[in-house]
């Protein structure tokens, strides 16, 4: 059985779009599983890990850091503005996409292709990296921790030639040919992205599932594989090795992913790390956004817990069955207050509609919260009624809608009351520093409006300095301010210390995934 560590409590403050293609070629045939019994063996190991997590005996612990928010040389305001413009494009594009199955004459039965919507962003700042290792021997893998998606993927060698290209990453490329535990995931595996395209038919001989995932301004493509993942700290005694994790091995990607080696999905779907480990629940704590000294940990399993007088819990709203909405963690936001004033927002403003539009999700990979326009305008007006500083046009300088000029770049913002998000059965209280953001003499409302009918999103900026627990089995989200809760999570941490607007405030949402047997 894999060795899993038991985790003790720790304090919160511990020190250009590419068209769909058939997919890149794969040089990894020599590492494919040679028999069904080998795949069954891997599945048994994963079952043992899942059973251990469920028993309460142990948890998986993964370190996290924030991607450096200071890119150097480029004004932060320009980066924020560009990120917001891209996000608007992605939102509009995503709404126009529908789940579809494409076929091509008589060849369709042998080589079906599925187009499915999903959602992701590029890791250019404001997101959190989780560090783990892939393969045997293990190769370090710093990747975005994202509760808004399922697929786990990293760049794979080779990354040269006409069909292969990779972005710069902070760690060596993972080479499946150098790992003794890599296997191509069979097309008829329950975790294959191609299994539905087969429609029950036997897979073609030597079938390998190729994916081509596009993202408003970027893309990644590769083959699904199975591999041993290693979790834990720097000491080998703290490591937990888990075989048989299904993941994406990308040997072609756009250049928009600098700062990471890929992504780790923590959503509701079967491909997410949470689901594959059978963790049941997971937790994290986001340190203050400007904190440059703290480190962090993500816990998956029974050690992920929050206790104390400040803990509040709200049920998840059932996710739509259609992709990609099925992977999101929806919440029932019923209202918003600023100080003692309850804002005039319709009770159905955040209602999740039967066609999958609307609703509100909580997402660790998005930085700035977006609100449906009717609610956002109420928040904006309430903030304006309390601030007497000169209003400046933030749409050009930062991309944010409501900004004020501070007396100087060193001036502290004026005091503001807390904002309360009223969820079903629980109130989340945000201090001013969790809904306003300052830098370079500019002070802005760190929220934006959502005008196209897409879902609203509770981003990680609004989750800072708060313990967050996702209890997937009990279908609840629990949270508490970091100074009022005892917890078995420690904080997610930013890297840089400059008091500037973050490099990018919004995720880049993935528009589609092309998958098909090859």
Automatic annotation (TrEMBL):
Entry GO terms, CC: extracellular region
Stretches assigned to the Peptidase A1 domain: 128-480
Q: Where is the composition biased (Low complexity)?
A: 100-116
Spell out the CDD domains in the cross-references. pepsin_A_like_plant
- Region (Disordered), start-end ranges: 1-34, 95-122, 493-518
Among InterPro entries, the record links this protein to: Pepsin-like_plant, PEPTIDASE_A1, Peptidase_aspartic_dom_sf, Plant_Aspart_Prot_A1, TAXi_C, TAXi_N
Biased region (Polar residues) positions are: 1-16, 23-34
Domain of life, per lineage: Eukaryota
GO MF terms here are: aspartic-type endopeptidase activity
Q: Which UniProt keywords apply?
A: Aspartyl protease, Glycoprotein, Hydrolase, Protease
Q: Tell me which Gene Ontology terms the entry assigns under biological process.
A: proteolysis
Assigned protein family: Belongs to the peptidase A1 family.
- What is the name of the protein in this document? Peptidase A1 domain-containing protein
Write down the species. Answer: Digitaria exilis
């Amino acid at each position: 059985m894999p060795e899993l560590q038991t985790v003790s409590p720790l304090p919160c403050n511990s020190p250009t779009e590419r068209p769909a293609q058939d997919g890149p070629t794969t040089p990894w045939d020599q590492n494919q599983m040679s028999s069904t019994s080998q795949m069954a063996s891997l599945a048994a190991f994963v079952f043992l890990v899942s059973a251990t997590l469920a028993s309460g005996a142990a948890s998986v612990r993964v370190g996290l850091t924030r991607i450096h928010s200071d890119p150097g040389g480029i004004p932060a305001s320009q980066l924020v503005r560009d990120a917001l413009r891209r996000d608007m494009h992605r939102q509009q594009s995503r709404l126009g996409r529908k789940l579809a199955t494409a076929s091509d004459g008589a060849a369709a039965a042998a080589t079906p292709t599925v187009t499915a919507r999903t959602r992701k962003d590029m890791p250019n700042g404001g997101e959190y990296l989780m560090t783990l290792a892939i393969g045997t021997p293990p190769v370090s893998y710093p990747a975005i921790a994202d509760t808004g998606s399922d697929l786990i993927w990293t760049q794979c060698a080779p990354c040269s030639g006409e069909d292969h290209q990779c972005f710069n990453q902070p760690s060596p490329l993972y080479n499946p040919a150098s790992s003794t535990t890599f296997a191509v995931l069979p097309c008829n595996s329950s975790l294959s992205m191609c299994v539905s395209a087969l429609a029950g038919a036997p897979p073609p001989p030597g079938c390998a599932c190729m994916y081509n995932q596009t993202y408003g301004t970027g893309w990644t493509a590769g083959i699904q594989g199975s591999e041993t993942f290693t979790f834990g700290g720097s000491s080998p005694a703290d490591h937990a090795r888990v075989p048989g994790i299904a993941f994406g091995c990308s040997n072609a990607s756009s250049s928009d992913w600098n700062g990471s080696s890929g992504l780790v999905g923590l959503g509701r779907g079967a491909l997410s790390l949470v689901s594959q480990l059978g963790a049941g629940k997971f937790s994290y704590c986001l340190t203050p956004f400007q904190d440059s000294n703290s480190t962090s940990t993500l816990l998956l399993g029974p050690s992920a817990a929050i206790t104390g007088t400040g803990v509040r819990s709200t049920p998840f709203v059932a996710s739509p069955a259609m992709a990609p909405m099925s992977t999101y963690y929806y919440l029932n936001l019923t209202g918003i207050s600023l100080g003692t004033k309850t804002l005039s927002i319709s009770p159905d403003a955040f209602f999740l509609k039967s066609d999958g539009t609307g609703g509100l999700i909580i997402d660790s990979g998005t930085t700035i919260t977006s609100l449906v326009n009717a609610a956002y305008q109420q928040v904006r007006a309430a903030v304006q009624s309390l601030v007497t500083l000169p209003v400046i046009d933030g749409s050009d300088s930062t991309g944010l809608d409501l900004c004020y000029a501070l007396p100087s770049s060193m001036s502290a913002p004026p005091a503001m009351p807390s904002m309360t998000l009223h969820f079903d059965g629980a109130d989340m209280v945000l201090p001013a520093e969790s809904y306003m953001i300052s830098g370079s003499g500019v002070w802005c409302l760190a929220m934006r409006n959502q005008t196209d009918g897409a879902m609203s999103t509770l981003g990680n900026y609004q989750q800072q300095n708060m313990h967050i627990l996702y209890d997937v089995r009990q279908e609840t989200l629990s949270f508490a301010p970091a100074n009022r809760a005892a917890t078995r999570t420690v904080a997610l941490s930013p890297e840089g210390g400059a008091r500037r607007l973050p490099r990018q405030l919004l995720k880049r949402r993935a528009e589609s995934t092309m998958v098909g047997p090859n």
